């Protein structure tokens, strides 16, 4: 297969590492006290929900815990 004379087939690829954008992002608006308090309250609600699910779920997963009846209720009448 014959080779072409140019080292890079597309000139814009060779110039891509030297390109610098002149577009700057808009400045961030400061969040109000109410928005920060709302975010903090939401975060605390999520953390409290996870902690509560752990407190209620871990004892139910304990393999050593016996059932208070000892078996299914449908099998008792036989």
Topology:
Blueprint: H1 11-15, H2 33-60
Explain how this protein is built:
With 78 residues, the chain is mainly α. The mean pLDDT is 77. It has a domain at 32-60. 42% of the residues lie in helices and 0% in strands.
Task: Record keyword descriptors for this entry.
78 residues; mainly alpha; 2 helices; transmembrane helix; transmembrane; membrane
Q: Please work out how many helical segments DSSP would assign.
A: 2
The SSE order reads HH
What's the end-to-end separation, in Å? Answer: 87 Å
Q: Which quaternary structure do these chains form?
A: single chain
Write a concise synopsis of the structure shown.
Residues 59-78 are annotated as: Disordered. The chain has 78 residues and is mostly helical.
């Amino acid at each position: 297969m014959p080779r072409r004379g140019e080292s890079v087939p597309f000139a814009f690829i060779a110039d891509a590492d030297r390109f610098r954008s002149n577009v700057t992002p808009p400045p961030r608006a400061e969040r109000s006290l109410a928005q920060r308090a709302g975010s903090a309250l939401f975060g605390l609600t999520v953390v409290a929900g996870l902690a509560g699910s752990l407190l209620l779920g871990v004892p139910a997963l304990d393999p050593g815990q016996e059932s208070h009846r000892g078996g299914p209720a449908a099998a008792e009448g036989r």
